[in-house]
Amino acid sequence: MAALTPGSTGLRRALVPLGYPCPVPSDLLLEVQGLSKAYDGVHALEGVGLQIRPGEVHGLVGENGAGKSTLIKILAGNVVPDSGSVGMAGAGLNLGSVQASLDAGISVIYQELVAFLDLDAVENVFVGREIRRFGIILDRARMRERTSQVFQRLGVGVPLNVPLCDLSVAQRQLVAIARALETECRLLVMDEPTASLSNREVEVLLATVERLKTEGVSVLYVSHRLDEIVRICDSVTVLRDGRVVETMPASSVTRERLIVSMVGRQIAAQSQSAANAPGTVVLEVRGLGRDGAFEDVSFSVRAGEIVGLGGLVGAGRTEVARAIFGLDRIDSGQVLVGGRDVTNRGVLAAVASGVALVPEDRQHEGLVLPLSVKDNLLMAARERLARRGWIQRRAERTKGDELSTRLMVKAASLDVPVRSLSGGNQQKVVIGKWLAMAPRALIMDEPTRGVDVGAKEEVHSLVTRLAAEGAAVLLVSSDLPELLELSDRILVMCEGRVSGELARGEASEEALMALAVHREERAVS
Amino acid sequence: MKAFLGRFRQEAVLLVLLAAFVAVAWRLDPTFLTPKVQGTLVKLVLELAVIALPVTLIVITGGIDLSVGASMSLAAVAFGLAAERGTPWPLAAVCALVAGALAGMLNGWIVSRARIHPLIVTLATMSAYFGLAEGISRARPISGFDPAFQSLVAGPLMFFVLALAAAGAALWLSRTVKGQAVFAIGLNEKAARFSAIDVDKIKFWLYTLAGTAAAVAAVSYAARRNTVKADIGHGMELDVVTAIVLGGTSITGGRGTIGGSLLGILIVHEVRQFVSWHWERDEINLIVIGGLLILALVANSAFGKKTDSA
After folding, report:
1. Which end of chain B has the least Cβ crowding within 10 Å, N or C?
2. Are A51 and A28 a contacting pair, CB within 8 Å?
3. Domain A56-80+94-263 CATH assignment equals 3.90.1520.10
4. Is the pTM higher than 0.80?
5. Which is it for strands A332-337 and A281-290: parallel, antiparallel or unpaired?
6. Across chain B, how many H-helices and E-strands are there?
């Protein structure tokens, strides 16, 4: 694109060369000040400031729910903040407009890539901004040439004429980057770009980021992978509970320092729950398979045991949880609860046999938001408290009080809508719904996603306590420290299969990740 | 008192609306409000109301049943054909109830099994049931039923049936586990399923109930008019849905009361009857009812927003 001469296309914005120096004396490309955003009274961001220089790779880290995605969405123009300002190259950015963000040179590549899978790389790069001859005919040759130029500058090879669905995730990501560069992007925001890449693909991506830097493009690099952050970033900003904890230059950044900063404390030594002697097998799955989701999954969970289920997003963990709970059809294999076969018997049978599921999507699957805390707490157990189907108000009130006290739910009263509670307290209500049933096997899918640190601790100790009381717990989590801290052993899934099992002693983030990407790697070589 | 008003706010608004309408009607045409006129007109309202009860429950689950009018026609034709062949009237009435229940079951089965939107399902079955009713009766009127049947069913019996059914529905909705589940389904069906609520079963029986209620209305109609025809249920669904929405039930589900629907029925019915009484023009009625439905929807969404933000 640097080779473009003025007048070569009808695109006005294409005339500005890539990495055009800041038109203002300030040496900042992006300046975010005092950004705040609350959802239903819960602060997602509170007075966040961020500064990025031209050509800088800036890392953004924080635990789940720290506010990273809200910040990204505000930069992309998808979310309007409650207060605060964003300056881009010295000019104020019109917040809440996707077009304004694009015009200002901000491109966002989301973790779940937005792309047209039936179109090829060239078409994806130019979709919506096609180069035309005489205003009508598509100039495919020019578009192709420019796309290949961008890939050359990035130093990568991506087939141009193959539909995206036939390319790997990594290649699709490169197409997205190429598209961003073609829009004269000056700040590229990458959200967990390496979350589903193999080790080798990660190398290519990191090299590409380095290349962007030399081109003068700034990158806001959002990742959980601290090693990558330490490696490629010039400076790092840590978010915790919607606030900026600190911004550090890369020279002072170490992995350990980042963790302490993210978590706000030293991670406690993991020991306490190992003492439990597991009891009899409560939940057992044998050769479980669902077409297109997972296959040949076998494991068992004993009473008092917490078994972690780790892996990358899309590895099939949630699907396994749903299938055990009777939500989705199982195509092969068996689910046994306390020795009883409940395969494909539906949710009601699963619950009757003692299985409970705390679903991944709290707001849509776990709760009925407009209903009261009490109604939500008792949603599953109501039938048991009732007399021939008639609600017993006093018994419900007692049970609701008991549950909310046990879970330490912070709510004005049991009659307020559950919507008005904070994320952490909402999650306690979802868990409480099943405590009322005294489940034998508790499946928890991302139980602390989007939950603040304090409530997270409480959920953790609750899980440990339930296991100590004899429940068999299957814990699905993408939060590696959580998985390592709570699980007695960890099963790792990769592309729909169990790729390995780690005992408490041998489990580490590295070992886990190695198993999580293991098969993909082998397929490449 | 404040809590009472808060709880019955919708009903209070509807009562005021009804009073306002009666005042206007009285000014325009004092004869409309004479007991004699009202007495003859009120019988039709019972039939509408009986159908509106289960349909209200369906709308609270987030569903709808457009086929109730057609089910009513089908049941009426079933009654007529049976009576024509000399079947004693109680048995003919059972035939009608079975026909209505079967029609409702088919709706319920498709909605809960195939998980197709009930709007489409019941639009399709509405057409099918009307066609079926017309086909088996060859579109001719069937008249001349047992006088004993007429005097018994067309009398106060229907009023007692409605009173009992309405009280039962209101109690069921507010005091039973399944009744409360109806609200949960309407507000978030997914979460209801995740909470081991038997969504499919509840839906199936509600649609079956709606078909059965349409059959009860059909039998009442047969007794009152001494004649049935395949088109007697025509337009019933419009009146019923308008009344329910007017009664404060959210068309997207999760909110609604039996009392509101009954008042809604009363208003729709009075308006409709007044228009045809005063102007003697039925086509104006269609426009008026259509307008009323739109107004109710607009008022409802504004009202709903207010309660949501509170």
Report:
1. N
2. yes
3. no
4. no
5. antiparallel
6. 14, 2
CA distance B146 to chain A (A): 41
Cα dihedral A83, A88, A93, A99 sign: negative
Q: Which residue of B has its CA nearest to A358?
A: B194
> Cα separation of B162 and B172, whole Å?
15
A445 touches chain B (CB under 8 A): no
CB half-sphere exposure, A200, CA atoms < 13 A: 10
For every residue of B190-221, which 3-state class applies, written as one string?
A: HHHHHCCCCHHHHHHHHHHHHHHHHHHHHHHH
CB contact under 8 A, B193 and A327: yes
Measured between alpha carbons, how far is A430 from A411 in angstroms, rounded to an integer?
14
Sheet strands (E) in A110-151: 132-133, 137-138
CA gap A54, A24 in Å, rounded: 12
- B133-158 per-residue burial string, b: 16 or more CB within 10 A, e: under 16: bbeebeeeebeebbeebbeebbeeeb
Structure tokens at A444: 């928890």
Give the distance from CA A5 to its chain's centroid: 42
CA distance A345 to A361: 23
The angle formed by the CA atoms of residues B13, B16 and B19, to the nearest 5 degrees, is 150
Tokens of B194: 């995740």
* Amino acid sitting at position A244: V
**Which of B178, B195, B306 to mutate: most A Cβ within 10 Å?**
B195
Q: Which residues of B touch A347 (CB under 8 A)?
A: 193-194, 196
Q: Which residue ranges does chain A devote to CATH 3.40.50.300?
A: 56-80+94-263, 272-524
Residues of B in contact with A441 (CB under 8 A): none
Fold (topology level) of B2-309: ABC transporter involved in vitamin B12 uptake, BtuC (1.10.3470)
**Range A272-524 has CATH code 3.40.50.300:** yes
A371 interaction partners in chain B (CB closer than 8 Å): 183-184, 187
Give the C-alpha separation, B59 to B50, whole Å: 15
Q: One digit per residue, pLDDT tens: chain B, 310 residues? A: 445 555 677 788 888 888 888 888 888 888 887 887 777 777 778 999 999 999 999 999 999 999 999 999 999 999 999 999 999 999 999 999 999 999 999 999 999 998 899 999 999 999 999 999 999 999 999 998 988 888 877 778 888 999 999 999 999 999 999 999 999 999 999 999 999 999 999 999 999 999 999 999 999 999 989 999 999 999 999 999 999 999 989 999 999 999 999 999 999 988 888 888 777 777 788 888 888 888 888 877 776 544 443 3
In degrees and rounded to multiples of 5, residue A88 shows phi and psi of: -125, 120
In A305-410, the DSSP E strands lie at 306-311, 332-337, 340-341, 355-358
Return the residue matching tokens 């009808």. Answer: A10
The Cα A281–Cα A302 span in angstroms is: 4
Q: What percent of chain A has pLDDT over 90?
A: 41
